[in-house]
Design goal:
Residues 191-402 form the Tyr recombinase domain. By secondary structure, the chain is mainly alpha-helical. Helices cover 43% and strands 10% of the residues. The chain has three domains: 3-61, no CATH class; 85-189, DNA polymerase, domain 1, CATH 1.10.150; 198-388, hpI Integrase, Chain A (Orthogonal Bundle). It starts with a strand and ends in a 10-residue tail after the last helix.
């Protein structure tokens, strides 16, 4: 329920403030102040606004802008019905500037899913954008049979559409505020990371056949599939034992739209083309990096570089084409998983080779900031959140401190 609070103005008059919880229950507090008229006028206006809030289900009245009252949507025909959520969503996605073609296409695909999604038997996302409520969003989050991570990803898009609707003047407040799945729950819902034992890795390499070198380089550097499959011969420096990561495969956008930086575009030819993908910048600015390789990894790469052009791919498919993620998974990885199952080894993802690489570094005592730089993580927080639990030193140090205290000795910092 909304209520009215009286506040004294500096001139001695009385302002009336209407306070309520958005959507009722535990929603965030909202307020609107009526203070420009006489005491009686302010109280009467507050009472009228309070009734409108209650009639709207403890929400801002449709078309009301805080501090201004009812206003017309910016740039909209006041006689025209508000757009459907999915239609305004498409308008929103197409006007985002800082987004890759592949991500724009992915968002439009999300809207296509929402367009046909029924919640409580209704196509809620084809309602006018002013017709969706916080209750609709909560019902969608509860009923939709998808992982919590997928729901969180979709919720981010939905929140952005509603924020755009507020900016355009169709809504006074964003109904998605406060409804997102908690990040702590999203992290808890993720599957456990898979780390290969030495025996498992030995078996994987043995059964991988022609792909042995690819797997060896990946587990030896921690590169992502889109990075290792984009490596050119000229990116490898055997003398300094380094690999330069300056490009990666990206998904095309609508109508095969691409986003290749100019310096790279000038070097591309027919042999660098791949279905539904193009070469572009790595995942983040810090993903553009130089990674050192061990002598054993350098020895594996050596024969692959001899007599080849600098812009040749280090790894290609059986037919000499660039490695396509989907094709490699279907025709190569699935066969390898069947062979591993026959050996009693649980299935894994290609990305688990990256996780295994990090597990090795942590077990060997490599500092986390160095691991962060090697993986191309934008933030050390990502590295700690993902791999911090593997650190053994903390537990060993704590055990030593406890034993010192229990034995009656004095606790002192370790000398370094």
């Amino acid at each position: 329920m909304a209520w009215i609070e009286k506040k004294k103005r500096a001139d001695g008059g009385t302002a009336a403030r209407v306070v309520w919880r958005l959507g009722g229950g535990g929603g965030p507090y909202q307020s609107e102040t009526c203070g420009a008229g006489s005491d009686a006028q302010n109280l009467a206006r507050a009472d009228g606004f309070k009734k409108m809030v209650e009639a709207a289900g403890q929400r801002w009245p449709e078309g009301w802008v805080r501090g201004e009252g009812f206003v017309r949507p910016s740039g909209a025909d006041p006689l025209k019905a508000p757009p459907r959520f999915v239609d305004l969503g498409e308008e929103y996605v197409r006007q985002i500037v800082d987004i890759s073609p592949g991500q724009r296409k992915r968002y439009l695909g999300h809207l296509g899913v929402l367009r046909s999604l029924r919640v409580g038997g209704q196509l809620v996302f084809t309602k006018p954008v002013t017709g969706l409520t916080e209750a609709d969003l909560k019902a969608w989050l509860i009923e939709w049979d998808r992982s919590l991570k997928t729901k969180a990803n979709y919720h981010g898009l939905i929140h952005g559409v509603f924020a755009y609707a507020v900016k355009r003047g169709y809504l006074a407040a964003n109904p998605a505020v406060g409804t997102a799945p908690k990040q702590s729950r999203v992290r808890q819902s993720r599957p456990e990371l898979r780390f290969l034992t030495e025996r498992e890795l030995e078996t994987v390499v043995r059964l991988s056949g022609p792909d042995t070198d690819l797997l060896t380089l990946t587990v030896g550097t921690g590169l992502r599939f889109g990075e290792v499959s984009a490596l050119w011969v000229g990116d490898v420096d055997l003398e300094r034992r380094t690999v330069r990561v300056n490009k990666a495969w990206k998904r095309n956008g609508e109508d095969d739209e691409t986003e290749t930086p100019g310096w790279l575009d000038r070097q591309l030819g027919p042999k660098h083309q791949m279905r539904d993908h193009h070469l572009g910048n790595p995942k983040t600015p810090k993903s553009r990096r130089t990674v050192s390789i061990s002598p054993s990894v350098a020895a594996v790469l050596g024969p692959r570089l001899t007599g080849r052009s600098a812009d040749d791919f280090v790894f290609t498919s059986r037919s000499g084409l660039p490695l396509h993620n989907g094709d490699s998974h279907t025709h190569v990885w699935r066969k390898l998983m069947k062979a591993l199952a026959a050996e009693g080894i649980a299935p894994l993802r290609f990305h688990d080779l990256r996780h295994t690489h990090v597990a090795w570094l942590i077990a060997g005592g490599a500092p986390l900031p160095h691991i962060q730089a090697r993986l191309g993580h934008e933030s050390i927080t990502t590295t700690i959140d993902t791999y911090g639990h593997l650190l053994p030193a903390g537990d060993e140090l704590i055990s030593g401190i406890i034993d010192t205290a229990l034995s009656g000795r004095t606790i002192r910092p370790l000398q370094t």
